[in-house]
Amino acid sequence: MVERTLAIIKPDAVKKRVVGRIIQRIEDEGFEILGLKMLQLTKEEAQKFYYVHKEKPFYESLTDFMSSGRVVVLLLEKENAIKHWREVMGATDPAQAKPGTLRRLYGFSVERNAVHGSDSPQTAEYEIAFFFA
Question: Of 57, 96, 99, 119, which has the maximum CB count within 10 A?
Fold first, then answer.
């Protein structure tokens, strides 16, 4: 089933200058890039985007981090896009991610882990609309 998902290249990866490598990997994995833009989230935008984590202890540091620098947001399409993108990203904790995954290659910590991806069709719908409505 062809799906769409959102990918974000986070501020840590932008600062490391690995955006091109990540985009190359996206294309090598067979994703169609339907939308792409670089922007910097305000703290308020980051809070709105991550509202589902509002009650969690990492919410403030996550939204501070996500508004600390530029990000690249991508609208991706592929068969089983959500599952495939999550496999390419790897585990949330880069230390636990499989070798060759983006988070293992470019991540630093659970929060500063280089990339984001939607975790379900419902989340993808919300996240895509947030950036590409």
Answer: 119
84 is catalytic: no
Question: Pick the catalytic residue: 103, 104, 112, 116?
Answer: 116
- Cα dihedral across residues 40, 42, 45, 50: positive or negative: positive
Nearest to 115 by CA among 55, 54, 29: 29
pLDDT in tens, the chain (133 residues): 999 999 999 999 999 999 999 999 999 999 999 999 999 999 999 999 999 999 999 999 999 999 999 999 999 999 999 999 999 999 999 999 999 999 999 999 998 999 999 999 999 999 999 999 8
Domain spans in the chain, listed from the N-terminal domain onward: 2-39+73-132
Name the CATH superfamily for 2-39+73-132. Answer: Nucleoside diphosphate kinase-like domain (3.30.70.141)
Angle among Cα 43, 48, 52 to the nearest 5 degrees reads 125
Do residues 14 and 122 lie in contact, with contact meaning Cβ atoms separated by under 8 Å?
Answer: no
